[in-house]
Amino acid sequence: MSDNPAKYARCPVVVVRVNEAQVMGDTIADTLRDELIALYQHSGAVHVVIDMAQVTYLSSAGIRPLLALNKEVREREGRLVLCGLTRDVESVFVATRLISSSRAVPATFEKHPDVPSAVASLYQTGA
Description:
CATH architecture: 2-Layer Sandwich
Oligomer: single chain
Number of domains: 1
Strand order of the largest sheet: 1-3-5-6
């Protein structure tokens, strides 16, 4: 793959699947952060959808890569949307107030049940 972005085509959204079942510890967190940021920067996309359906456990260290990526995405005026959260993983995000259990309360991350609804949310007008 070329290091130069496409000249005539652009993808405004990159969808990334986290394949690690247990995202915990500094080694995994640091590697995941580096991979996510590299994928995002190389893609040239504005928005990111993170499919976390394979993740069954997320420690506080596992949140750091998402926060780092969110910073990069916001610098491009994009949005980072999480999807496929298991009940246990979602409860970590709710407990840390990084996602909201109601739309009335603003939160760091948006969540949707699956990739299609997450991508669609990026293009809903008036949202």
